[in-house]
Amino acid sequence: MASVNPALAQLLDDPTRDWSTFPTREPPFDQAVGLPAVISISSLEWPTKLETPHRFDHWLAAATNILRAYHLDHLIDINIPRPRRADPYALHWLQSSIQVQSWLSSMMTPHMYRQIEKRGHRIALADEFIFEAKATFMRRNTTETFRFQMNDGYFNPIEHTIALRLEFNRHWINGVEISPSMAFLSVLRGLEGALAPHVEAALARIGWDGQTVTTIERFNQYCDFIIQELRHQVVASNGVL
């Protein structure tokens, strides 16, 4: 009688072993999985075209919700792998992605489309089109949207700093190409005249060289410091946070 491998015998005899906890291999998932057999772009309704960068977040959320209802939302997610060229459903995926990209580009004004196009990168497929749109408009939003809101009185300096800090962190998590240095300079530009003269000197003492923010952690540290200083200024002026 053949002897049983000792390691195998130990596994078979272990009463605490729960076989259901062993990792199982999930089926491969890519952008082609779950696509409808026929895509009718004309049936996708859209309330209004994108006309300004300040509305891009709302536009993208609406587009994602509409595409999700038709099981097409994974076509715009660049983090989901594309099918391989040799896969039997690759051609259907390619045609579907091109159709969705065409629909998305038709749902913005020609001027907005040209802003994406002039970056010079590939935008023929849906995922790369949305990636480039994010890099174009979310980058601009971080430097323009909050300045616009500050000028119109929507944000006070503390709210501006908190909002821009949160916005940059959200874009960073989503992989949008915004440097911590550029984001922090945007914070400072939006606060022109609001900071007491000693604040920038105090920032220098904690590492700010006037130009470079090397990490997102450092960006958050500087923003927290500014928020604290702004609150101190408010307290000093009227005793109210």
Task: Characterise the protein shown here.
This protein has 241 residues and is an all-alpha fold. The protein has 2 domains: 50-139, no CATH class; 155-241, no CATH class. It is 55% helix and 0% strand. It has helices spanning 6-13, 56-69, 90-106, 110-117, 126-151, 157-173, 180-190, 197-205, 216-238. Helix 6 (157-173) packs antiparallel against helix 7 (180-190) and helix 6 packs antiparallel against helix 9. The longest helix is centred in the middle third of the chain and has 26 residues, at 126-151.
> CA-to-CA gap between the ends?
83 Å
Number of strands: 0
Largest beta-sheet characterization: none
- The percent of residues in helical segments reads 55-70%
SSE string: HHHHHHHHH
Radius of gyration: 25 Å
Taken as a percent bin, the fraction of beta residues is under 5%
Number of domains: 2
Determine the structural class based on helices, strands and strand pairing. Answer: mainly alpha
Given the structure, what is the number of helices?
9
What is the residue-averaged pLDDT? 76
Low-confidence blocks of residues: 19-26, 141-154
Shape: elongated
